[in-house]
Write a structure and sequence with these properties.
It is built from eleven helices and seven strands. By secondary structure, it is of the alpha/beta class. Helix 3 runs parallel beside helix 4 and helix 6 crosses helix 7. This is Dihydrodipicolinate synthase.
Length: 247
């Protein structure tokens, strides 16, 4: 929200239906009212929406609604939590969602959250479809180097968060899905683009900011920092997150 107000030309990843926090009807209402009827967004604001869920039929329904949205420019496609599909099943799932979309798609692999890890061979197979323009890899960063060596086209490799970012850039990551950018958009943006150019002059200063964010339960801390630096009121985290705040 800070970034939007400062008129950044940015991507806004919005993780709709990534878990069971919202049912499908609530998720669709968010798209209807929070995005498609929102008049304050700049016309060139690039809005990406996260599409995933535990039930494939609901993911397909969500993809159909996202496809009809004029506000949403691209999709961050995640994998179902808890189910741990085979690689072939995950590829099939991806292809079924792609059938519902004409918008650009970025794959999102986050083994820590889903229990499933998209393999290099699966990534390469899916990149045969040029509708897929990149991948956000929150698992083994070495995987990106392996993909790059065998891929014959240019795609976007998103680092998930700022931790170990210099190392990830050295491995081939060229985009950032920022967490700290929700609080310090200009500082994180400048730092990231400087790192891409081989400059790390701001690293010590940014490290202090990141330590403030990541040294505790970071979602709880993130909400605190957003509230402290903006007029956005976000309420409390869902328990068990924030339990220690109440004691």
């Amino acid at each position: 929200m800070n970034s939007v107000k400062e008129d950044f030309h940015i991507a806004v990843p919005t993780a709709f239906h990534a878990d069971e926090s919202l049912n499908i009807e609530e998720t669709l209402k968010h798209i209807d009212h929070s995005l498609d009827q929102e008049a304050r967004f700049a016309p060139d604001l690039e809005i990406l929406v996260g599409v995933s869920g535990i039930r494939q039929k609901e993911v397909l329904r969500l993809a159909e609604r996202v496809e009809r949205s004029n506000a949403i420019k691209a999709v961050l496609l995640g994998y179902p939590p808890y189910l741990v599909p085979s690689q072939a099943e995950a590829v099939c799932y991806t292809e079924k969602v792609l059938e519902k979309l004409s918008k650009p798609v970025i794959l999102y692999n986050n083994p820590l959250r889903t229990g499933f890890d998209l393999a290099v061979e699966s990534i390469l197979h899916l990149f045969d479809n040029h509708q897929i323009i990149g991948i956000k890899e929150a698992g083994d960063p070495e995987k990106i180097q392996a993909v790059q060596k065998r891929l014959d086209r240019t795609v976007y490799y998103y680092a998930g968060g700022e931790q170990d970012l210099e190392k990830k850039i050295s491995l081939g990551f060229n985009r950032l899905s920022s967490i700290a950018g929700n609080v310090w958009p200009q500082e994180i943006s400048n730092w990231f683009f400087n790192l891409l150019e081989g400059k790390n002059d701001d690293t010590d200063k940014i490290s202090l900011l990141l330590e403030n964010l990541y040294n505790d339960s970071f979602l709880v801390q993130l909400k605190k920092l957003i509230i402290a630096t903006s007029d956005v009121q976000m309420g409390n985290c869902r328990a068990p997150l924030g339990n220690l705040e109440k004691e």
